[in-house]
Amino acid sequence: MSETAQPNIFGVSDKAKAIGDKVEAFVRETIAPYERDPRRDHHGAATDELVAEMREKARAAGVMTPHIMDDGSHLSQVDTAYVLIRSGLSPLGPLACNTMAPDEGNMYLLGHVGNDELKRRFLDQLVSGESRSAFFMTEPADWGGAGSDPSMMKTICKRDGNHWVVNGRKTFITGAQGAKVGIVMAKSEEEGAEGACMFLVDLPDPAIRIDEVPNTIDTSMPGGHATITIENLRIPADQMLGEAGEGFKYAQVRLSPARLSHCMRWLGCCIRAQEIAVDYACRREAFKKPLIDHEGVGFMLAQNKIDLKQAELMIYWCASVLDTGNLGTTESSMAKVAVADLLMTIADNCVQVMGGTGVTDRTIVEQVFREIRAFRIYDGPTEVHKWSLAKKLKKGWKVANA
């Protein structure tokens, strides 16, 4: 039985199982062969041409944006886990099926906070897979802006008649280059609207300038992770997402499930990396027997199997909490830390088992290793989540001992 063909002990619906199994077949049979396709940009990510071609095949196969139904409703988080894990069986799978960050998280946010007009104008083009999006929140450290501490946000917005004017800088904005939809966070000091605000904007816009797109260790996300200058960006007031001053609350609506979605997709990649490593270890011989028969190798792969199951259990547990209607910030922080660390060990073991081949681009194993390393930082570094959890422990202790 493969790692993706497990008994249904998590309450996954029959609908989600049918969707997920269809996605798995599509990713394995149609998308995995594209892993050798040379159409990559100078950062190593799939070009828009390649993404468009794969998405045409996803539409034809009926697996485009499979976690969002035709009526706009989303699968439950437990059901989403079943589908997104399978979309992640190739690093290209989430791109092809439109389950990739940041679009997946942005669609979730718009679906839960956006009004009908904003959904029609901005969400529909994302769900169809016709456009990509970017989420403008993180700011440069050399500017003293917001990173893991959003209260440090220095990008500001001010009212001007029936518009808001935004000025500031952003960094590590995933997918900004080539995106058609942007969600911009800025801080308001206006009386009655103090706090963070979110705005939807059409991209590109001359007031949003891409200063650089640095090369990074990961290469799975088109558009890279850009540094941005925003200068006198005028946004109609009706393009504010939700209410003024509520931006940080909306960010949590997005970030808790988005962290978990990362875990789902990268678990799929590590399942595939384990399959490749096991196949290699069973075929490659050294000292007159297959590598897997050497304890040093076989035990690493055995530990990987254990860790894959632990990661899966953590993902489904957190998904079930989110399905109760709880924002699940504590649970998503725990899942992000635990799953990222487990997957890092799994990916590292796969590279080690495969030796020289493991560090080449002959398989996806080396890419999975790089992507997981970046994942331990994105959507909050491990240390920030642990610090947040420690604060909650201290608060609970004070309450218990008051």
From TrEMBL:
Domain Acyl-CoA dehydrogenase/oxidase C-terminal: 245-393
UniProt cross-references to Pfam families, sorted A to Z: Acyl-CoA_dh_1 (PF00441), Acyl-CoA_dh_M (PF02770), Acyl-CoA_dh_N (PF02771)
GO molecular function term, any single one: flavin adenine dinucleotide binding
Cofactor(s) it depends on: FAD
Annotated keywords: FAD, Flavoprotein, Oxidoreductase
UniProt cross-references to Gene3D superfamilies, sorted A to Z: Acyl-CoA dehydrogenase/oxidase, N-terminal domain, Butyryl-CoA Dehydrogenase, subunit A, domain 2, Butyryl-CoA Dehydrogenase, subunit A, domain 3
Domain Acyl-CoA dehydrogenase/oxidase N-terminal, residue spans: 14-130
GO cellular component, one term: cytoplasm
One of the protein's GO biological processes: fatty acid beta-oxidation using acyl-CoA dehydrogenase
Domain Acyl-CoA oxidase/dehydrogenase middle: 134-215
Family: Belongs to the acyl-CoA dehydrogenase family.
Protein name: Acyl-CoA dehydrogenase
Organism of derivation: Croceicoccus mobilis
Lineage, highest ranks first: Bacteria, Pseudomonadati, Pseudomonadota, Alphaproteobacteria, Sphingomonadales
